[in-house]
Amino acid sequence: MATTYCVFVQNKGKVTVHKEYHDLEYVFPIQDDNLLFARLILEINQAGLSWETILKKKDNFFKAFDDFNIDKVARYTDKRKEKLMQDAGIIRNRLKIEATIHNAKCIKAIQKEFGSFKNWLDKNHPKIKEEWVKLFKQTFRFTGGEIVNEFLMSTGYLPGAHSETCPVYKKVLKQKPMWLKK
Fold it and tell me: Considering the domain boundaries, does residue 135 fall inside one?
């Protein structure tokens, strides 16, 4: 049987960057569009790397991308992209940086039509993972199955993130994540 994230954090990960993320952020519902955007972009940047690498660079990402302010990121210029490519504090991958800007523009369009990115996610709930992946691929860049699954699981739209024996599980339930709503 594979070790779950909860078991990893309770044992080997308890003195790492994983502990705070697991205990305070992972699967707790996010209401703020900029924070939802941040989580999506962090998941995109994790592709091909460890989640620990992303967590260690998380503060740098927030600083480099103007706290993931969707309006600001959507207006980034080629000059700003080049500046980001020089920032050793983040993942310097041109495709991921371009996807971040593109996805900010997509979220702005979603906000215009649905009022918020959160409303769009809620309107499309419930979907099974495959339906979500198809929707995300039609809407955003650099959003394959694993990225979409982790984004939706980590924000409370898909079940299965915390084991029921995890001490954080009951705290998450009190927040009424979307996966509880059918």
Answer: yes
